Amino acid sequence: MKTEKITGLAPRLSALFKAVTVTLSLGVASSVFAAEPEVTLKLHHMSPPMSNAHSRFLEPWAQKVMKESDGRIKIDIYPSMQLGGNPSQLFDQARQGVVDIVWTVGGYTPGRFPKAGVFELPFMATSGRSSSMALQEFAEQEMQDELSEVHLLALHTHHAGAILMRDKPVTRLEDLKGVKVRAPNKQMAEALKLAGASPIFLPLPTLPSSLSKGVVDSALLAYEAVTPLKIHELTRYSTEILTKPGLYTQFFVFVMNKDSYNKLPDDLKKVIDNNSGIETAGWIGQVWDDADVRNRQTMVDSGTIFNTLPEAEVARWRQTMQPVTDQWIADMDKEGKDGTRLYQKAQTLIEKYEAKAN
């Protein structure tokens, strides 16, 4: 009888031992991350916490860096310009060491990245993933001078954008005549002028109030930004160009202060390096592509009316906007940068990554 009791007790003791072992193991693992990090970096950006950029890109990226560094690198993220200044100052904040890392829109500092402007020309962009990987390779090979004062993490783009209208559809080029359109960058502002529109440059956070007050009637916009800003509640029509390349994109800058990077020990530099570069740019671009799909469906559900331009009409738009590309090439040539070569290289790189995606 006693033997039976002891025998019956053995499995329970074994289970208890395993439970204690697991608990202790978890305690050891959690203590690794509970310890003070060796390095704490400040990441500053302009988008709100609920934005795609913050919640699906910057936070996961920071968590991945922390995990791969075994908790030795901690990244504190400050959205919505919480550390002061305005979006146009973000790049300089990283350059000057006011913060360690920034993410911002390249076009918020006009003239700073003239070579990257080739990706913002009319009818260059494709998917966010392909265009981002192409831009990153382009930057690594051609933009050392424009990025020499910072440590490059990644450049990326969004998916080719659409034309969103408040009150009337755009089904042909003439429908843009006199329309006040939010332009995302210099190149597309010039393209809109050639189409007869009245472009107005607006930082994205101001777009909802500008639409509601009639400051603009329309916006060039990627669907990625629609839902967080509730643009689908302020516009009724969307005009899409589904042929590749699409109408336009804009590029984003993700950089680190040089000293902040150089002070890291080699093994922690490697963690940052492993979360930078072409593959990281492609991942960010895919985050934007996925958001485009989700938000377009939100627009469908809310009753947005979609118009797709036929190929013959797209050809008219391309011809009308071609002088913008010609001028960009001429401007690069004036600076001794061989605009034709840079333009053709950007096209080749986009085609390269598009082919890999298909």
Molecular structure report:
The structure is a single chain. With 358 residues, this protein is of the alpha/beta class. The chain has two domains: 36-157 and 250-290, 3-Layer(aba) Sandwich (D-Maltodextrin-Binding Protein, domain 2); 162-248 and 295-357, 3-Layer(aba) Sandwich (D-Maltodextrin-Binding Protein, domain 2), CATH 3.40.190.170. The chain has twelve helices and eleven strands. It has a six-stranded mixed sheet, covered by helices on one side. A five-stranded mixed sheet has the order 2-1-3-10-4. Helix 4 (128-142) runs antiparallel to helix 10, helix 5 packs across helix 11 (311-334) and helix 11 (311-334) crosses helix 12. The protein starts with a helix and ends with a helix. Residues 1-34 form the signal peptide. One of its GO terms (biological process) is transmembrane transport.
Brief write-up:
The protein has 358 residues and is α/β, with parallel strands linked by helices. Helices cover 48% and strands 16% of the residues.
Descriptors:
single chain, 358 residues, D-Maltodextrin-Binding Protein, domain 2, six-stranded mixed sheet, five-stranded mixed sheet, 12 helices
And the CATH topology of the largest domain? D-Maltodextrin-Binding Protein, domain 2
So what's the overall shape? globular
Q: What are the secondary-structure elements, in order, as H or E?
A: HEHEHEHEEEHEHEHEEHHHEHH
**Gyration radius, rounded:** 25 Å
Low-confidence sequence ranges = 1-32
Give the integer mean of the pLDDT values: 91
How much of the sequence lies in strands comes to: 15-25%
The major β-sheet equals: 6 strands, mixed
Q: Give me the CATH architecture of the largest domain, please.
A: 3-Layer(aba) Sandwich
Question: How many DSSP E strands?
Answer: 11
Residues in helices, as a percent range: 40-55%
Main β-sheet, spatial strand arrangement: 7-6-8-5-9-11
Say which CATH homologous superfamily of the largest domain is assigned. Answer: Bacterial extracellular solute-binding protein, family 7
What is the total domain count?
A: 2
Q: Give the helix tally.
A: 12
How far the N terminus sits from the C terminus, by CA atoms, comes to 72 Å
CATH class of the largest domain, anyone?
A: Alpha Beta
User: Strand pairing plus helix content: what structural class?
Assistant: alpha/beta
